[in-house]
Amino acid sequence: MAGGEAITALAAKQQAAMQKWEEMEKKVKKMEAEQAEAKKKARKSAIKEESDKYLNKSIKRGVKVQMESLDFITDLEEVWADLAKAAEGAGEGGGEGTVITADNVKQSNDALDQMTTIITKFRLHTQWELDMQIAAGSSTMGWGTVTQWELKKKREEGESVWSMTPEDMRKIEQEKLTYDRQLRLAGRGGGAAGFDGKRDYERAFGDIWMDGQEPYAGAPRGRGGRGRGAPDYQRGGGAPRRGGVRCYGCGGNHFHKDCRVQAGS
To answer: Which stretches of the chain are DSSP H helices?
Structure first.
């Protein structure tokens, strides 16, 4: 019984030790994640600070892209920094030693994996910028296309804190454009979409002009509105004349001698 109790106690101690080890690993991983996030934020802040020094948008983008590229190179150097430092002075006569040895195979493999990941991200970063430059030069909308594309990418990658979708934004923009257009039309006195002052008044009401208004060259006559298809005698009669000619009998745009209203009365 004593031996069994000892084994049970030893197993309990081992289990407790494993739990402590797992908790320690979790803390280490959490610290590493926090450090990585802090480094990421610091880099973004440094890039923004440097980019904000320039007014030209092309220069801003160029500075941003180049600084991001340098960060990738810095990450590659940091991956091998510890191994390279350990190899310094390890060679014959205090010279450069072998970086990968039988004693650091696991650490070297981890470094190779990290290096591969960084190089893959670096390639994607460079290819994306090349694509955006070509898109800006090829699209009729220029850099507007690039801006929309990058907003979509940020949302898909979860980098954007914006909860609205691009489709929602397009809908709101369309509603805003429609509303602004209606306000402009209302300010001009136009009650219908596309109403454009005197020309549309004449287009809607035919050749019925108010006193003091003269028809313009090429104005449609008897088309649409109250003048649509109306006989000549109802509109004052006779061929419309330019130059402000008015019948003193009915006020129509014709000479009094051509007035059909007076003739029929």
So the answer is: 2-51, 57-87, 105-138, 143-156, 166-188, 197-205, 260-264
Per the CB < 8 A criterion, the answer to whether 227 and 205 are in contact is: yes
Measured between its terminal Cα atoms, the distance across the chain in Å is 135
Per-residue pLDDT tens for 2-26? 566 777 777 777 888 888 888 888 8
**Cβ-contact 205, 225 below 8 angstroms:** yes
Q: Are 111 and 83 in contact (CB under 8 A)?
A: yes
The Cα–Cα gap between 39 and 231 comes to 83
Q: Which residues contact 252 (CB under 8 A, 6 or more apart)?
A: 235, 236, 237, 238, 246, 259, 261
CA distance readout (Å), 132 to 47, 149, 181: 19, 9, 33
Contact yes or no for 250/261 (Cβ under 8 A): yes
Does 71 score more than 60 pLDDT? yes
- Residue 19: what pLDDT? 81
pLDDT of residue 233: 41
Sign, CA torsion 167/172/178/180: negative
Cα dihedral: 24, 28, 31, 33 (round 10)? -130
